[in-house]
Amino acid sequence: MEQMREPSADLAFMKMHGLGNDFVVIDARSGFDPVTPALARALGDRHRGVGFDQLAVILPSSQADFALEFWNSDGSKAGACGNATRCVSDWMMKELGQNAVTLTTARGSLRAIRRKDGLVSVNMGDPILEAAAIPVAADPMALPLEGAPVAVGMGNPHCIYFVDDAEAVDVSGLGPQIEHDPLFPERTNVEFASLVAPDHLRMRVWERGAGITLACGSGTCATAVAAHLKGLTGRHVIVDVDGGRLEIDWRDDGVWMTGPTALVFEARLSPAFLASI
Q: Which residue ranges form the domains of the chain, and what is each CATH number?
């Protein structure tokens, strides 16, 4: 059952982005989470709402500094969102006066830090390589699809293609077809990557429930893991996405992702908008 909201109330939110991968963020640490699938869809509408690639909800946590829950613009839940995790972690570090925070997501317990150069790093945890856990109905390293993609989980499923030229791929045409392929019982994010150098990749992405985005943190992590498993790169790589550059380091304690963050504005949703949902 969807939660009821006082019709006269407004609702505070923030707009953030990491490399153009943009988010609406709602702070629900007071104990009341106002987000429903209908609200997520209305907020995600770039013409009639605010617009976002993902919606991030900050929740209280007894095990960490805070918890995060993610929604897609189609009203579905997202298990992970790396760039939103970095952006919210940066905001929380400033609020708490710290250079490191812990948080919990559907992925489990994560840690984020602010480096001396001002960039924010988050440990996205160990990659998921078992078919049932990703989930995918085939050998993740030998998917029966044209183009020989591989599957990697980062709290959400990813299907990664290595191509000669990521710029030439019809992402808008191929992405939705692969997202809904029967091999992926929970659908999948789709990445197309090309090798620039042994420590450098170019990647474009189709996100499950969102479409083409300028960057995808979990997808960048999954692509770096897949590239190393296929012998294309080492464990530390630079990945150029449509919105900029991310640094991925697959360490013994998990996959660390580093990049810039931005708080664009803070505002309030009007009572009239909320009442119309």
A: 11-123+261-275 (3.10.310.10), 150-252 (3.10.310.10)
